[in-house]
Write a structure and sequence with these properties.
about 280 residues, alpha/beta, Metallo-beta-lactamase, Chain A, seven-stranded mixed sheet, 14 strands, binds zinc ion
Length: about 280
Amino acid sequence: MGQYLKFWGTRGSCPVSGPQYRKFGGNTSCLELRYGDSLILIDAGTGIRPLGKQLAQEGIREIHILFSHMHWDHLLGFPFFQPIYEEDVQITIWAPHGEGRSPDELFKELFSQEFFPVSFDQLKAKLVFRTICEKEPIAIGSLQIDFHPARHPYKTFCFKISTPHQVIGYASDNELCSPFNPEDHASLIEFFRHSTLFIHEAQYNVKEHVEKEGWGHSCTLGVLLLVEHLQPGKWLVVHHDPEHTDTDLKALRKETKKVLRKKHIDCPVEWVVDGTVLELK
Ligand SMILES: [Zn+2]
Ligand SMILES: [Zn+2]
């Protein structure tokens, strides 16, 4: 299968299209992680639709999908995910369970006739629902996955995926306190320490974050200060705001690189574009 991480959707909140989004792309959150015989997808935003076509062509029969949470932008592509219409496919859905309805109840509602023409009972794949919990890591093949709560409306988790050689941190929706104070995030810092790849959103600039405090997303400066404490091998920015065009994202990237240099923080940063592939160790 190879060993890689592919970003099929890097947009946050709502898919976008148009020439002003051509470079970074418009599909919402979805990552594909292949390692040995294991296939793990992270979130099922609209990026999962083209991925599903590829998996069906390959005849993949066992798939794990990890959901950080169940907001629309992380779920929207699921009804269009080809493997759910294939016989002899098992899809294990790992998701948080908050105070409200369970993930399997939510999925059944997603396929109710008011929302979608195909009913849940008509899906051909076998869907297995598993709950993810803090301090209860799971193992899939040779990978270990740990969970830490995110600061985001309703129950949301950050992930840490450890291969035998590498640690990948993932936080697509996580609002760091502003101004950033490491003491407010001691547990998160401990969780993400030693990340070789650190995938963390930076949806707003500082001014936008002031206007959107409590919406569950961070500003670039806050994450940059977190990065200063973590010293990861690389910081990858995902979950781009739908209001941000290619020009805006390039400007944010330029400004962030400038501040990293000024503060002598030795960490490469990249704003990820749809379709990016990274080889894993
Ligand atoms: Zn989101
Ligand atoms: Zn969300």
